[in-house]
Amino acid sequence: LQWCVDFLSRRTELLVPVLVLGVLEVLLSAVLVFGIDPEPLSVVRLLVYLPATVLVAGMIDLAVADDLKGRWQSNEAYASAAIENLVTGLVVWLLILIAVGVGLVLLIVPGLYVGVRFAFAIPAVFLDDRGIGDSLRDSWERTKGHGWTIFGIGVLLVIGSAVIQAVSVLD
User: Per residue of the chain (171 residues), what is the pLDDT tens digit?
Assistant: First the structure.
């Protein structure tokens, strides 16, 4: 956690795309709270929010990799590099969603297992310039033996995100 705080304090300009994404999520969530018909916003979520989420994730993956190597580029450079792999990232995200969904339908545990094993597929698309099959295969191999650690980090992220969203809706 301290590394994340240090990283964001060094790279504050990366907060801009993350904050824009957060504001969009709060606005989309507020629609449900205020009882506005959410149907039209489903299209916005599908065509804008989900690709933007994958794009920002790609930008952050690239920025973190550069930071660990002692390099840094502009947000525009990271966005441009992430856009090159956006379609592949979206397809990988969709395949993971389907695999986790099927696993959750069968039983909760298989869905969580598949989700953990594919946790690094999207970063593989952006960082390693992998295709769909290679990114899924690489993630499966890289997560072997680290399932509980990845699962624990995922639980902490979900709890943290839920707290932030609850606080933002209550204000």
Answer: 566 667 767 777 777 777 777 777 766 666 665 666 666 666 666 677 788 888 888 888 888 888 878 888 888 888 888 888 888 888 888 887 777 777 667 777 777 788 888 877 888 887 788 888 898 888 888 888 887 888 887 778 777 777 776 666 555
Asked if 127 and 61 touch (Cβ cutoff 8 Å), the reply is yes
The DSSP code for 46 is: I
Handedness of CA 4, 49, 58, 19 (dihedral sign): negative
CB 96 within 8 A of CB 118: yes
Tokens of 130: 């992998």
Q: Are 151 and 116 in contact (CB under 8 A)?
A: yes
Tell me which amino acid residue 65 is.
Answer: A
